[in-house]
């Protein structure tokens, strides 16, 4: 079988070549298709960045308008999908429901995409972007017991997110532009992050030529875990726990450093960023702006600031290069914007969707072989069968 290298967690193994995202963990650099994340977050819109990630170039004004119009052609979700949502208990976690609904889209769109056909691929991209937003917000409406909303084709994608989530049949709804602007930025910052756990999952599942919806549904499941996208929910829960406990951040710092205690400081550390997370820098600034403009005064924020300052000065954290990551601040903004805690990871999924699509498309276009890692067997040698009955 030849020589097998063992690299648990793929800490030093590349799984593919990619032209989508450049990341330098030492220098804290993140670029999509060569454009710096700072420029994109400041100057571009989320649909524009989605187009860039998926198709490789920034769209012209006409291409962007067409993209928007083509997404709008697919914003209706089959009414029978509602029967599936009805089957879930109200208490179901939105990420579990989102994964299931994304997978269910395969049943309503059974024809697999021919990646070599540009038009078919383009339609599949628009369809996925349109329907995923709608079902993502439906997971929240389900938990609230509210009627499900429909996409409003007269307004933009991010405004639609707010409307789909919060519009009630009892009155008009207009999204706060400050909130829309902050969300646009947050979605951009989550757009892609090379071969992270969920993206690798999407590529791995897709490498067996499973369809786009099936692969993305697997990505949603991978994202859900607290060591990955689920960290943003875990951060808020941790801050709430510290607050309830009396706000003693030193006590929780000590717990995080105790090797006999499984507790970790959520929102700190990153597999590849060892000096700082460039997304966290942009988000921290945005968080300050949003909180000031909205006039939010929240004891949780004071705890977050205290924890951040303590960790940045702490030898344990410094020696292991553990800095606040994107999830530390994103949860704080989502909370200020009125997004419920168990929807935080769904927000991450909406932002990461264009990255998953871009990576799936690239993997198929590059005709990558099926993903099939090897292992080193450490079990029993051959044993003689003798029944234990
Ligand atoms: N709190 C306390 N100790 C930590 C933490 C933490 N948050 N993160 C890492 N460590 C320690 C760890 O115990 C180990 O110590 P030692 O060398 O003494 O055994 C050392 O730092 C290296 O950690 P690791 O687990 O080997 O590092 P990793 O690259 O496998 O894990 C990580 C990276 C992000 C999973 C981890 O830092 C972590 O669990 N962080 C908390 C969860 C979190 O915020 N996740 C979001 C990541 S960013 C968004 C995303 O990509 O999804």
Automatic annotation (TrEMBL):
Known InterPro entries for this protein?
Citrate_synth-like_lrg_a-sub (IPR016142), Citrate_synth-like_sm_a-sub (IPR016143), Citrate_synthase (IPR002020), Citrate_synthase_AS (IPR019810), Citrate_synthase_bac-typ (IPR024176), Citrate_synthase_sf (IPR036969), Citrate_synthase_typ-I (IPR010953)
Please list the GO biological process terms of this entry. Answer: tricarboxylic acid cycle
Q: Which Pfam families match?
A: Citrate_synt
Is Transferase included in the keywords of this UniProt record? yes
The catalytic activity, as recorded, is: oxaloacetate + acetyl-CoA + H2O = citrate + CoA + H(+)
One example GO MF annotation: citrate synthase activity
Q: Does the keyword Oxidoreductase apply?
A: no
Identify the metabolic or biological route this protein is part of.
Carbohydrate metabolism; tricarboxylic acid cycle; isocitrate from oxaloacetate: step 1/2
Task: Please name the catalytic residues of this protein.
Answer: 270, 327
UniProt KW keywords: Acyltransferase, Transferase, Tricarboxylic acid cycle
GO cellular component terms?
cytoplasm
The family note in this entry says:
Belongs to the citrate synthase family.
Protein name, please? Citrate synthase
> What lineage is on file?
Bacteria, Pseudomonadati, Bacteroidota, Flavobacteriia, Flavobacteriales
């Amino acid at each position: 079988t030849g020589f097998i290298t063992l690299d648990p967690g793929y800490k030093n193994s590349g799984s593919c070549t990619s032209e989508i995202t450049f990341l330098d963990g030492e220098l804290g650099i993140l670029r999509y298709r060569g454009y710096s994340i700072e420029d994109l977050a400041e100057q571009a819109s989320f649909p524009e960045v989605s187009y860039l990630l998926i198709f490789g170039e920034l769209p012209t004004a006409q291409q962007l308008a067409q993209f928007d119009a083509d997404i709008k052609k697919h914003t209706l979700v089959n009414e029978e999908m509602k029967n599936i949502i009805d089957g879930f208990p109200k208490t179901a976690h939105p990420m579990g429901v989102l994964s299931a609904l994304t997978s269910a889209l395969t049943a309503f769109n059974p024809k697999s995409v021919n990646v070599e056909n540009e038009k078919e691929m383009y339609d599949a991209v628009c369809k996925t972007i349109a329907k995923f937003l709608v079902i993502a917000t439906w997971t929240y409406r389900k938990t609230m017991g509210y009627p499900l909303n429909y996409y409003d084709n007269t307004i933009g994608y991010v405004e639609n997110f707010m409307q789909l989530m919060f519009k009630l049949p009892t009155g008009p709804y207009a999204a706060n532009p400050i909130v829309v602007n902050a969300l646009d930025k947050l979605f951009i910052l989550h757009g892609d992050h090379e071969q992270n756990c969920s993206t690798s999952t999407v590529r791995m599942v897709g490498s067996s030529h499973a369809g786009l919806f099936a692969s993305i549904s697997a990505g949603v499941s991978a994202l859900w875990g607290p060591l990955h996208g689920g960290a943003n929910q875990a951060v808020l829960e941790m801050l709430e726990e510290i607050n309830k406990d009396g706000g003693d951040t030193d006590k929780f710092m000590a717990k995080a450093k105790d090797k006999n205690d499984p507790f970790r400081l959520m929102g700190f550390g990153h597999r590849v960023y060892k000096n700082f997370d460039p997304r966290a820098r942009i988000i921290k600034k945005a968080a300050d702006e949003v909180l000031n403009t909205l006039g939010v005064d929240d004891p949780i924020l004071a705890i977050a600031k205290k924890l951040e300052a303590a960790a940045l000065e702490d030898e344990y954290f410094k020696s292991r290069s553990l800095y606040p990551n994107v999830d530390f601040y994103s949860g704080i903004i989502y909370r200020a914007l009125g997004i419920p805690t168990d929807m935080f990871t769904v927000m991450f999924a909406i932002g990461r969707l264009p990255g998953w699509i871009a990576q799936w498309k690239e993997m198929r276009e590059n005709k990558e072989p099926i993903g099939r890692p090897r292992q080193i067997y450490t079990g029993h040698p051959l044993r003689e069968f003798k029944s234990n009955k």
